[in-house]
Amino acid sequence: MQTTFPRLLLKHAAERPGAAAMREKEYGIWQAHSWAGMAQLVERIACGLHEAGLQRGEHMVIIGANRPRLYATMLAAQSLGAIPIPLYQDAVGAECVYPINNADVRFALVEDQEQVDKLLEIRGQCPQLGQVIYDDPRGLRNYAEAGLQSLDALLEKGEAFAAKQPGFFKAEVEKAGPHDVAAMFFTSGTTGNPKGVVHTHNTLLDRAKAGADFDKLTSGEEVLAYLPPAWVGQNIFSYAQWLACGYVVNCPESASTVTIDQKEVGPTYYFAPPRIFESLLTTVMIRMEDAGRIKRGLFNYFMGVAQRAGPALMDGKPVAAMDRLLYALGSVMVYGPLRNTLGFSRVRVAYTAGEAIGPDLFTFYRSIGINLKQLYGSTETAVFVCLQPDNEARADTVGVPISGVQIKVADNGEILVKSAGLLKEYYKNPAATAEVLSADGWYHTSDAGFIDASGHLKIIDRVKDVGRIKGGANDGAMFAPKYVENKLKFFPHIKEVVAYGDGREKVCVMINIDFDAVGNWAERRNLPYAGYTDLAQKPEVYQLIKECVEKVNADLSVDALLAGSQVSRFLVLHKELDADDGELTRTNKVRRGFIAEKYQPLIDALYGGKTEQFIETVVKFEDGRSGSVSATLKIDDTKTFAPVKAAA
Questions:
Q1: What is the pLDDT of residue 620?
Q2: Smallest Cα–Cα separation from 54: which of 24, 79, 86?
Q3: What is the pLDDT of residue 648?
Q4: Fewest C-beta atoms under 10 Å: which of 143, 146, 478, 508?
Q5: Can you tell me the distance from the alpha carbon of 468 to that of 466, in angstroms, rounded to the nearest whole number?
Q6: Strands (E), 539-620
Q7: What's the average model confidence in pLDDT over 107-115?
Q8: 5-271 with 466-637: one CATH topology?
Q9: What are the residue ranges spanned by the domains of the chain?
Q10: Could you tell me which CATH number the domain at 5-271 has?
C-alpha cells in the first residue's frame, strides 16, 4: 500500500465524509466522530503543533488510553512529517526517561492530570522536554508550569492558523512519502534498556493491508480499542488497519467499563492476549459454579455437545445429524446467550497472540461459535507474519505465512523472517540492528520453532532460553522454560509462572495464583483467608496447584523433546509479580533474569532441598509509596513420570 496514514485519512474523508470513523463513550453515551470531522480535527491539531514549533523529523511522545483526540494527534504529527512515539500510560515516570531522552523528545501529548504529573516529575531529567499538552483538563486548572497547555488551547491556535493559510495542511501531507518514518515503538526492555523500533508508513500499512486481505476485512467492521496504544498489536488493529480498511474504532469510557462497552458495541473483529480470554472464561466458570443445579446441569450438558460438535462445525467438517440438531438447540439456550454475555455476539474474526493459548481454552471459544485464531508476529515485523486460515485454526500452531512473508529455520532452530513489514532500524543502535537484520534482509526473531507438515509454524521458546538439563536422570534433555510456563498458565487457578532448570539437574518453578479464581474456589469450600499472601500459603491451595503441576508433568512425559522438562519442585509466591516492581514488562512478560536475582534465596531453597524459606520483598504501591511483604513460603515436591516411548 504505497501511501501514508494522513493521505488515507483524507481519502476516507473525501469518499464518505459523514460515515463514523471513531466512537468514544463519555458519561455513558457513545459520541461519534465522522471521517470529515476527524480530518478537520487533525488539521487543526497539526496547524497548532506547527505554530508551537514541531519540526519535520522530530519525535513526539503520546501517553494515554485509546482516545480519538490522541489518535488525531498521532495523525497530526505524521502530517507534519514528525514521528509519534506512544508510551505505556501505566508506566511510572522513571520508565519514560530513557525513551524521551533517547529520541530527543521536545513535545508530549498526554491524556490527563496523572500523565502531566508524571512528566513534570521527570522534567529535570529530560531538560529538552519543553512542551507538554494535555487532553483532559480536570484537576489542572491551577497548574502554571512553563510549556504546559491544553489541547483545546492548541486547537484554537491551529484553527486561526488554518484560516490564514488554508492550503498549508494538505501541502504538508503531500510532502511525506510511503518510505518515510511514520512511528517508533519502544520494546519492553526485558534484559536492558528498551530499543526504539523504527517503522515507515509502508512497513506498517503493508502488513495492515496483508492482514486485512487475509481475513477479508471491510469498512463495515467494528473494533474495540481497549489495550495500550503503545503496544504495537493495539496500534495495528486500531490505527494502521483502521486507516487501511476504514472501519469504526470504538474507545471505551474507562478500563473498568470495557466489559459493558464491549457488549454494547458488539465488535466484529477482536484481538486480545490469552490472559484476557482466560479471564473471561474464569468469570463464566465462577458464575456457573454459583448457579442453581438445573442451570448448571444444562450448561454442562450443552458444553459437552459443543466440545463434540462445535470445532468441527466451525471448521466445516461433517457432523452427525443428532449432534448438529443438539448444537442448534444449545446455540439458542446456551451458546448464543453466552456469546452475548461475553460481548462476542457479532464477532466474525477473533485473534490472540503474544503467548501460547491452552488447547482447552482455545477449544472452548471455538466450540461455542467464536472464530478464535492465533497469529504470530512482533514489534519488529509490524505484527503480521503468520495467521491461521478460518478452517485451519489449531491450538499448537501460530498459522501459515501470509502474503509477502518468507520464513526459514536456521540451523540452531531460530525462525528467520523476510517481509515488507520489517523494521527500518533500531533508533540510534546500529549494533542491535545488525544483530537482527542480516545483509540480505532476513530478520532474526530469536524464537525457536519449526514448520510442520501442513505448513503451519510451531513456536517452542525463545532461542536464548532453550537450555539443557545438566546431571541427574535427565542429563542433556532439552529445557524450554516458556513452554513449561505456558502449559501451567493454561490452568485458570494459575496466573504467572517462572521456570528454572537450564544447567541444573531438575526443573523448579515459582507460581502466582490467580487471586480471583482461587479466592472463589476457597470461598465455595468455606476456606477463610486474609488476603493474597495468606491464601497463597494455604495447604489446600498447595494441593490444588500441585495437581495442576502433575497434570502438566504427565503431558510432558509423552513429548519426546521435552519429557525432561517436567517440574520436580514448586512454591507459590507470597505476592503477585508486578511490572511496577520490575518483575514483568509492561506487556506482562516475565523478566526471568531479574526475578532470579531478586528471589535468589527462594531459588537456592528450591534446589537446596528445603521445605520452606522466609522471604521479605520490597513492593511499590499505586500511589508511589514503598512497603514490604514477608512470608515463610512452603516448598513442595511433585510427581514426575517416566518418558513415554513413541509407538514403533
A1: 80
A2: 79
A3: 38
A4: 146
A5: 7
A6: 567-572, 612-620
A7: 97
A8: no
A9: 5-271, 466-637
A10: 3.40.50.12780
